[in-house]
Design a protein that fits this description.
Layout lengths: L1 H9 L5 E4 L7 H10 L6 E2 L6 E4 L3
Antiparallel strand pairs: 1-3, 2-3
């Protein structure tokens, strides 16, 4: 996901990235974020289709 790679390259300490469409009905996004979560501390926001990452400050 090139947009995510761009976002990571611009992310400053303490900054956040928020993704949407984290649901099985969006299989590309769902799979990508599940894979990324094995490397980074991503958090699914309960009751939503949002996932968030915050770079350590």
């Amino acid at each position: 996901m090139s947009d995510s790679k761009k976002a990571f390259s611009m992310l400053k300490k303490g900054g956040v990235i928020l993704w949407h469409d984290y649901k099985p009905e969006a299989p590309d996004v769902f799979s990508y974020l599940n894979e990324l979560a094995s490397e980074l501390p991503l958090r699914h926001i309960s009751g939503t289709d949002f996932v968030i990452f915050q770079r350590a400050s």
